[in-house]
Amino acid sequence: MNIKLVQGDIVNIAADTIVVSMVEGAELTGAAAAVDKACQGLISNVVAQGEFKAKLNETIVLYPQGLQAKKLVVVGLGEAAKLTIEKIRQIAGTAIKTASKGKAGTVATVVHGAGVSSFEVEALAEALAEGTVLALYRYEDLKAKKTESSLSEVLLVEQAGCKQCSIESGIKKGEILAQATNLARTLVNAPGNHMTPTHMAETALRIAQETGLKCTILERADMEVHGMGALLGVAQGSVQPPKLIVLRYEGNPGGETLAIVGKGLTFDSGGISLKPGEGMWLMKDDMAGGAAVLGAMQAIGYLKPKSNVLGIVVASENMPAGGALKPGDVVRAMNGKTIEIISTDAEGRLILADGVAYAVAQGANKVVDVATLTGACGVALGQFYSAIVANDEELVAQIKAAAAISGERFWQMPGDDDYKELITSPVADLKNSGGRMGGVMTGGLFIGEFVGNTPWAHLDIAPTAYTETEKPYQPKGATGVATRTLVALACK
Ligand code: BES
Ligand code: MN
Ligand code: ZN
User: Fold this and answer.
1) Vertex 74 angle, CA 72 and 77, to 5°
2) Per residue of the chain (492 residues), what is the pLDDT tens digit?
3) Can you point out the beta strands (E) in 129-213?
4) CA 374 to ligand 1 center in whole angstroms
5) What is the CATH number of the domain that holds 99?
6) Residue 171 placed within a domain
């Protein structure tokens, strides 16, 4: 589904459905006022009757006369003073879902929020495209019968000739970001028997081919050469060969390099420290960090920012075979540190230990890892926030600035040395579990032990990677969380 920019007047546009928006508690302005006038005050009547208040994400469907369109959707922006770019994304998602119900083939809309806020028209168009493409996402690859939709085109109508360029580039960027997020969603929604480490590597190769990124895949033998005993330890319980996937984007030769390192654990059974059966199916989402990295690298490959980005996905299964890692075993990571295995279910930090050490060895000046790392994260923050654990406040500030652009929510957790004492081992340099208390911090800080002095931040997306509640631009299932924040970080 494409969004096409059309120069003209929304009142005269030939489309099946048109969408306009209005502010709560204010007079109709702009496109909504023009449409209202063209259909004999239909919108103002509904407002006068108190049927529609234009609260945020409120919609009303009208069947106008005097317009080419058969159906008219009005969506509420809420109060003008409280409008944000994130709300524009939501409004766009709400509107397209309402507009595309039924038989509409073509939906025409305008840039929402333009006349009633001080946001740049480019940012508004980007948010509109993002919200639209994100809201229309469905995962139906494995269903014989797909949901029927007659929607074939979304037209973004703008009268002013001078705004065409900004709107066009906003649409492009929004589409790229949403498609990257949808790619991450699909990788996460795919079942573990399809989405193996090998399949993740194939996806990376396809992204590289399509966008011109460089791609290297490290195989088991390469991992042995590098001494990646932590990653190899986790992988040894599975028949699926592990892959360390490297995508490289160079947009600022000679400049510093940001590494984004994702946990690509394609199924987490817990290993010998087996998880309970109930709910275990969801552990197909344990590669969501890796999916976010792949999605982000796809977008970066298309957007071509003036920066260098190293995208790394550490991909493995965690299974309980006869040769699997056992509690009490000790492994040696790439940087030489030894790790006592307390729980084979704390495998994410093991594979990431080698992932971040490899990123540093490859010359990364900044490392951000992203992982569905701990159940404790959901206990601490609920499902609304992802956690940050870091060794560098400047990098945290950059991540927060990136999240302010993407609309995703992150909360910084403490990183005091006291937590590190909880992961010291009597027999090795570290142990891989610090117990139940403070699990987000001990899990995160464990990974930080493998980056040396490099500025580093860890994003725990365990509670946010998958959702059972639908939101305006978020269907149930995988969210693709962190994809857009990582792109914003790379583009800053
Ligand atoms: N993949 C899980 C974390 C997880 C839990 C992700 C729930 C998504 C939803 C991770 O590998 C894990 O099992 N963590 C353990 C760590 C513990 C053994 C120290 C946990 O959180 O229980
Ligand atoms: Mn686990
Ligand atoms: Zn896991």
Assistant:
1) 160
2) 789 999 999 999 999 999 999 999 999 999 999 999 999 999 999 999 999 999 999 999 999 998 999 999 999 999 999 999 999 999 999 999 999 998 999 999 999 999 999 999 999 999 999 999 999 999 999 999 999 899 999 999 999 998 899 999 999 999 999 999 999 999 999 999 999 999 999 999 999 999 999 999 999 999 999 999 999 999 999 999 999 999 999 999 999 999 999 999 999 999 999 999 999 999 999 999 999 999 999 999 999 999 999 999 999 999 999 999 999 999 999 999 999 999 999 999 999 999 999 999 999 999 999 999 999 999 999 999 999 999 999 999 999 999 999 999 999 999 999 999 999 999 999 999 999 999 999 999 999 999 999 999 999 999 999 999 999 999 999 999 999 999 999 998
3) 153-158
4) 4
5) 3.40.220.10
6) no
Residue nearest to atom 16 of ligand 1 (CA): 346
Top mutation candidate among 285, 351, 373, 431 for ligand 1, by most atoms within 8 Å of CB: 373
Domain count along the chain: 2
pTM score of the predicted model: 0.98
Residue ranges with strand state E in 115-213: 153-158
CA 480 / ligand 1 centre spacing (Å): 19
| Residues carrying an active site annotation | 275, 349
What ligand is nearest to the CA atom of residue 270?
2
Q: Which amino acid is at 490?
A: A
372 CB less than 6 Å from ligand 1?
Answer: yes
Please name the residue whose Cα sits nearest to atom 3 of ligand 1.
Answer: 374
Residue with tokens 């509109």: 128
What range does the domain containing 375 cover?
178-490
Residues 241 and 363 in one domain: yes
Query: Ligand 3 centre and the CA of 201: distance in Å?
Result: 19
CB atoms within 10 A of CB 44: 16
Q: Identify the three-state secondary structure at position 408.
A: coil
The pair phi, psi for residue 369, each rounded to 5°, is: -100, 150
Atom of ligand 1 nearest to the CA of 434: 19
Q: Does residue 433 have its Cβ closer than 6 Å to ligand 1? A: yes
Q: Are residues 413 and 275 in the same domain?
A: yes
The CA 382 to ligand 2 mean position distance, Å, reads 19
Rounded CA gap, 484 and 33, in Å? 34
